[in-house]
Write a structure and sequence with these properties.
The complex is a heterodimer of chains A (about 210) and B (about 200). Chain A is mainly alpha-helical. Chain A is built from 8 helices and 2 strands. Chain A has one domain. The two termini of chain B are about 15 Å apart. Chain B has one domain. The chains are: A mainly alpha (about 210), B mainly alpha (about 200). At the A-B interface, helix 2, helix 4 and helix 8 of A face helix 2, helix 4, helix 6 and helix 8 of B.
Chain lengths: ~210, ~200
């Protein structure tokens, strides 16, 4: 618990690149395919996850000394479920049209392995501010990944970005269909693996977790 | 009414297949389909847990949450009920049928907080809160649809072991592309029933 030596830059670099939840850890893949048919939906989902992660990490960090280690996993689950409910109700109230399309996926943030794992790995052992920064960094990594897939799919599928038409043709309409989400995900992941191996000497993404 | 139940069953198994049309349960889907044996074990466990979880949550939603007007707490309550049930099933199975536990126990531990186990009661609460039969049809259809997806994918991935895939695409990326191809095939079911 050496709070003085916490390097915030390092935490951000780790969250966005080194341990990017979607592309490197291959966690929480469902929303990465489900809500990314457009940049807007993907970004909003990312913001929702970012908010949940910051608040969950903050809550866990604040009460970490009162949680009995034997019941820590159920405690995390109820803390996460509470914050997801808050997000869900806020989005249902203020973003109705988006909520109709992705309400189910907002509710299912509760089952994201990435949120639970950051609470266990980081927030349980660190003070309030570093925990919040870690949540923000991981959430940002998630948001950027979703936005990247969203850009790829919306541009190829509709010739548009953020709902604004850019091309007059639709290059690959399949990209906005369910199947296109899987194709986009596979292609981007393979491409990033290739860059990683060629320029950074890495070993590619992990082969899938929970 | 029975026609509705049958329609919901077929729609949730094929047209709104959890993996190929709703993109849920992907972590498990990619995690356990490396071997046929694990895929089949997972299918049984999933379908069972899904049915019982949906039934439990239906009764709680209808007879506890609705009268008390606490429907907005459904996320917290459903996940609590499912976690408690899976934990109980784990303990009871270990005691009563050690042979079965030895086979399926490891899968049980994995699915406590899985998204599709939770998605079924959430969908039921939104759409079929009035009828137990419709809720069960959704749960059974989703479970069997997911089992179908797991078994298709496992049989393809066993062949994939022998294929010469570019190094950057080995593992997850090629599995995603494959899933996309199967999802395309499943699109063919979409005109079959209009709900």
């Amino acid at each position: 618990m050496s709070t003085d030596s916490v390097n915030y830059g390092q935490i951000f670099k780790n969250g966005v690149f080194g341990e990017n939840p979607v592309f490197r850890l291959a966690l929480s893949l469902c929303p990465a395919v489900a809500v990314t048919s457009g940049v807007k939906n993907g970004t909003l989902m990312g913001v929702a996850v970012l908010f949940v992660m910051v608040m969950v990490n903050a809550t866990v960090s604040l009460i970490r000394n009162f949680i009995n280690p034997k019941v820590r996993i159920p405690s995390y689950m109820f803390i996460i479920a509470t914050w997801v409910t808050v997000t869900d109700l806020v989005m249902a109230a203020y973003a109705r049209d988006v909520y109709k399309q992705m309400g189910l996926y907002i509710m299912l943030i509760v089952a994201f392995a990435i949120v639970l794992s950051r609470a266990e790995v980081f927030a349980m052992k660190n003070k309030l501010i570093p925990s919040m920064v870690d949540g923000a960094a991981m959430g940002l990594g998630f948001l950027l990944a979703l936005a990247l897939i969203g850009v790829f799919r919306e541009f190829l599928g509709k010739g548009a970005l953020w709902g604004v038409q850019i091309l007059s043709v639709k290059p690959l309409p399949i990209m906005i269909l369910p199947a296109g989400g899987f194709f986009a995900m596979g292609l981007i992941m393979g491409f990033l693996n290739w860059i990683d191996r060629k320029y950074f000497g890495g070993t590619g993404a992990s082969s899938g977790g929970h | 009414m029975w026609q509705d139940v049958l329609t919901i069953f077929i729609a949730s198994a094929l047209i709104n297949n959890f993996v190929f049309a709703r993109y849920l349960g992907l972590c498990i889907f990619f995690g356990v389909t490396k071997k046929m044996e694990t895929a089949i074990g997972m299918s049984f466990t999933f379908t069972g847990v899904m049915l019982i979880g949906a039934a439990l949550n239906w009764f709680i939603y209808k007879y506890v949450m609705m009268p008390l007007h606490i429907g907005f707490l459904k996320i917290v309550i459903f996940i609590g009920v499912i976690a408690a049930f899976v934990q109980a099933a784990d303990t009871i199975m270990k005691k009563v049928t050690p042979a079965l536990y030895y086979k399926l126990g490891i899968y049980l531990a994995l699915i406590t907080t899985n998204c599709i186990i939770l998605a079924v009661p959430l969908l039921n609460a939104e759409e079929y809160a009035d009828s137990l039969f419709k809720s069960m049809a959704l749960a059974l259809g989703s479970g069997l649809g997911f089992s179908l997806a797991l078994i298709i994918m496992a049989s393809i991935r066993e062949k994939l072991e022998l294929a010469d895939v570019p190094r950057s695409f080995q593992g997850l990326p090629i599995s995603f592309v494959l899933t996309g191809l199967i999802a395309l095939a499943f699109l063919g079911f979409s005109g079959m029933i209009t709900l």
